[in-house]
Design goal:
The complex is a heterodimer of chains A (137) and B (133).
Chain A (H helix, E strand, L loop, with lengths): L5 H4 L23 H11 L1 H16 L14 H28 L7 H25 L3
Helix pairs in contact in A: 2-4, 3-4, 4-5
Chain B lengths: L13 H34 L9 H9 L1 H12 L1 H15 L8 H24 L7
Helix pairs in contact in B: 1-4, 3-5, 4-5
The chains are: A mainly alpha (137), B mainly alpha (133).
Chain lengths: 137, 133
């Protein structure tokens, strides 16, 4: 990886320092399953961002008044949400699994920490679902 | 730190701390809160499987008017963008756009998250008046 070898470094003429330029071939992330999953993990940000912007728009539309407000029901929106959900779940899985690497508590096995993160996720999801459904009519 | 390995000005990198904290918190919030909103409001509600609060104008404005809900929505919508900004910037770097490392790119991405935070605050304050009803 290093451009400057030992023999060249000893050269008395001092050639201009060569800079290591990492070059990734186009489509490098398609060559290995792990690379691909890494890129997918990073990409999950985009669909989630779009969905949250839609939620903000849905809140803003409440200012149209009772006659101007229509809840989303188009098949395209549902398909969009299904795709976003798949990416969001992948983000949840990868991010909460990381907790076992990041958080260190003496005497607590990392598997238990990861488990507690997933438990917190399930509890939060249940509470949010209860509010979203419970205050509906 | 200079090249000798000595710390020239030992001071806490507060800006670094702030952005890193927002990145981590945005990741946690997106991981724990987003999937259930997408499932309930984006799939189950529109399909008519369950009744959801945003399907009717009156129930929707009632919950969005609640100040605690407004605060929650601000956290839910705005904070993840500080996570997304970082991830998408480095996604571009990884996919062969080195310009995404530059200072202008940082201003665009993290500034974008700040703008979205401001817009979210504005929407939450102007759309439905705060009420405890």
């Amino acid at each position: 990886m290093k451009a400057l070898g030992g023999a060249e470094a000893a050269d008395s003429t001092h050639p201009p320092p060569r800079v290591y330029k990492p070059e990734m071939p186009r489509g490098w992330w398609l060559r290995q399953r792990h690379y691909f999953l890494y890129i997918i993990r990073e990409f999950t940000a985009l669909p989630m961002a779009l969905w949250l912007l839609w939620l903000l728009y849905e809140i803003q539309r409440a200012s149209n008044g009772p006659k101007g407000y229509y809840p989303p029901s188009s098949p395209a929106f549902i398909v969009f949400s299904i795709i976003v959900l798949a990416f969001a779940l992948y983000h949840t899985y990868t991010f909460l699994s990381l907790a076992g690497v990041i958080i260190h508590i003496k005497g607590v096995p990392s598997r238990l920490i990861v488990l507690s993160q997933f438990a917190a996720w399930l509890v939060a999801s249940a509470v949010i679902a209860a509010v979203l459904i419970g205050f509906a009519r | 730190m200079n090249h000798d390995g000595h710390v020239k000005n030992p001071r806490t990198a507060y800006t670094h701390l702030l952005w890193w904290f927002l990145f981590a918190q945005g990741g946690v919030i997106a991981a724990i809160l987003v999937p259930i909103h997408v499932l309930v409001q984006g799939i189950l509600g529109p399909l008519g499987i369950v009744r959801v609060v945003d399907r009717h104008y009156d129930t929707w404005i009632r919950i969005v008017g609640n100040p605690i809900v407004k605060l929650y929505l601000l956290v839910l919508i705005a904070v993840p963008f500080f996570h997304f900004a970082h991830r998408l910037r480095y996604l571009l770097v990884d996919l062969g756009v080195p310009a995404a490392r530059s200072v202008p790119a940082q201003v665009i991405f993290y500034g974008g998250a700040v703008v979205i935070t401001a817009v979210t605050i504005w929407v939450l304050l102007t759309t439905v008046p705060i009420s405890f009803g």
